[in-house]
Amino acid sequence: MHPVLADFVAGTLGGCAGVTVGYPLDMVKVRLQTQSTAAPLYNGPVHCLKTMVKQESFWGLYKGMTSPLYGVAVTQAIVFGTYGNTMRLLGENSSRNQFLAGAFTGCVQSVISCPLELAKTRMQLQGLRNQIPPSSSTPQPTFYKGPLDVLRHLYRKQGLPGMYRGFAWTLTREIPSFGSYFLTYGLLTKVFTPTDTVDENGKIVHGHMGIGRLILAGGMSGVISWLTCFPQDVVKSRYQTNDRYTSARQCAMDSYRKEGWSVFTRGLGTTLVRSFPTNATTLTVVTLFLRHVRSLNDEKNLKEMVL
């Protein structure tokens, strides 16, 4: 398999595996981020999780997942395809290039992720219908038949700008997030990978990380990437789910004025807990797939692969 194609396939497989593992906690994160502190529906991540299962069933935890699951096949293919090709263009596999390639990857995938996340977050809030007091600042969600219905509804009412509501804040989140994501993974894999050895026939045996180290490196990369961008994500989520705001800046200022600085870290604990298994799964699957392809390819293609 050609290295370029391998990057895209690896991203698709890793992304689908990761989103399946982490989606329920992503649902909790969105619910906590968008609720009002004046009349909160949940008093913490565990209470939120229990309440959703009780009121919406276990499958309520996966409400709206069709959008990210279908979309992840495209977005993660774009992420790892863009990153791999950008690294090949930059040449040297240095920390600087890993960050730059990751930041550029964040820009590219924002074009896809912005409307998909908008549909996902609005679907995730549908379970709140009839649970929100009229006096609450938490938005009353519109009823949608599915993620595509969200996008159709927004396009009919607001055109393309409606589908890309919050795009600028998506960029401010993704650029530092993906830059630090790939930089961290590159640094950790360099530390964790055993040095190459030479067998009795004089052939070089390349060192490989075990599954445990792959999981640790992938999980930590995800955690660190979220720490660089979480406040932007809070503003983006609130702005995308509440049409009464005319700009993301207004949303940020209004949130701070009413709820203080703590609003920008609400749901952070849940996000970090979700991020570790999600990204550990994604990067482990990607790395193992590319490692398998390397074993089948010749030395030329082996050297061209990035991760």
From TrEMBL:
Claim: Transmembrane is one of the keywords in the record: yes
Reaction(s) this enzyme catalyzes, per UniProt: L-ornithine(in) + L-arginine(out) = L-ornithine(out) + L-arginine(in); L-homoarginine(in) + L-arginine(out) = L-homoarginine(out) + L-arginine(in); L-histidine(out) = L-histidine(in); N(omega)-methyl-L-arginine(in) + L-arginine(out) = N(omega)-methyl-L-arginine(out) + L-arginine(in)
Compartment(s): Mitochondrion inner membrane
GO molecular function: high-affinity L-arginine transmembrane transporter activity
Cited InterPro entries: MCP, MCP_dom_sf, MCP_transmembrane, Mitochondrial_Carrier
Repeat positions for Solcar: 2-89, 93-191, 209-292
PANTHER family registered for this protein in UniProt: MITOCHONDRIAL BASIC AMINO ACIDS TRANSPORTER (PTHR45624:SF61), MITOCHONDRIAL BASIC AMINO ACIDS TRANSPORTER-RELATED (PTHR45624)
Family according to the record: Belongs to the mitochondrial carrier (TC 2.A.29) family.
Protein known as: Mitochondrial basic amino acids transporter
Name of the coding gene: RvY_02136-1
